[in-house]
Amino acid sequence: MATQNDYNIGLDTEKWFEETIKGQTRKIKLKHMGNAAFDFIGVINGTKFFLDVKFYKCEYRIPGWLEIEAWGKETGILSHSKQVKETCFLAVLHKGMYHIINVKALQAAIRRGELVKKSGKSYDGGKECPIKFVIMNGFDDERFVLFSGKMDKDAWSRIDKTSSLKRMSIDKWFEGQFLEI
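and the corresponding structure tokens:
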């Protein structure tokens, strides 16, 4: 079960991602939604898309690891992508970088058997949760990852944080470690 701090961590990292993208390009417009299935509605070159942000606190998972189901249900953006014709993306924030993953391409590879669903357990929120996950060929897997970029450290210092991440060492996070200062 998610806690209030888990929710605030999501808000903090979503604001940070939005600020990073604003600073890097004016071609992508994002509107924060805070929807259960996705975080942003976006537009690029007049084309609408949906985007969800996932933040990995530290490098404790295999690069390319993606949770796709929890409690027997497909996770938000994966489920949502089956209901809309628009493109859906997942932005994974990991070790100082963001990686933009094409969700529909990922789902097609799972259906074809190119990516195998594996079972595991998550302990987020203090409760054991059965999950399914896949492992891409790293976060630079060209089959799914459209592009990657560096997260903006200055944007992190500018946003008003409400979660426990306000004590996170940003320099250590860029190295793949979680350390409170």
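(Above: one complete record from the training split.) Helices lie at 4-24, 76-81, 103-112, 153-158, 170-174.
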